[in-house]
Amino acid sequence: MLAKAELYRTAARVLSTLDRTGWILRYRWGDRRLLEDVILPTLDRDPAVSSALLVGCAWYTRHYPRLLPRTHVLTMEIDPAKAAFGGERHLVANMVEIRQHVAPGSLDAIVCNGVLGWGLDDACAVEAAFAGAVRCLKPGGLFLLGWNDIAPRNGCAPDTIAALEGLEAVPVPGLGAHSLVALERNQHCYQAWRRPEEDATPAQNTDQTPEKRRASSAGG
Ligand SMILES: C[S@@+](CC[C@H](N)C(=O)[O-])C[C@H]1O[C@@H](n2cnc3c(N)ncnc32)[C@H](O)[C@@H]1O
Description:
The protein has four helices and eight strands. It is α/β, with parallel strands linked by helices. The longest helix is centred in the first third of the chain and has 19 residues, at 2-20. S-adenosylmethionine (SAM) is lined by residues 55-58, 61, 76-79, 82, 94-96, 113-115, 118-120, 129.
């Protein structure tokens, strides 16, 4: 475990040095490009989104917080060794226990890509993790799911997950569709939902970053 943590820390240091030269080592597949070039930047431009949680960290996601420069980003990863690939604000935590770490109604968006079926597999654990995530969203908050509709990753398909039932299906940011298969080979699918607005209170939207406050008051 210590050896793994040291290996990841070294990898993170080397990658960060490369990143600073402007040579970002990353996956070039179409599903990643959609996430990195379209979905995350669109989320960042949304004046309603000031805070976001990104679940699951790996060497190829280390730069994701930087794709959301106007958003307060928190990262979460169950594997302590992978903290090296997390953002400045990082939680070593199991998403199943998200409510022990994140205040209810505190997040504008949660991006949960490649976690369902990639460690978060058991149906009860999935229900607990997603129900907890929904509780941590502000009313109107966005839950973005990336998952693979292919065995063995699709043991728990989203349309069987009760925790997602009360949510409103909405277009994935930047894609104009609620559900989109981004890569045929691995059936990597992006889907988005919103927590219903009905229990919204004005006080819950006061923590925008200055850039986003300016954008919303300018009507953008
Ligand atoms: C395939 S990687 C995906 C990483 C990244 N989110 C992405 O966009 O590809 C899955 C990661 O999710 C983490 N993970 C799995 N189950 C988790 C859980 N219950 N809570 C937090 N992280 C978890 C794994 O440790 C692993 O690092």
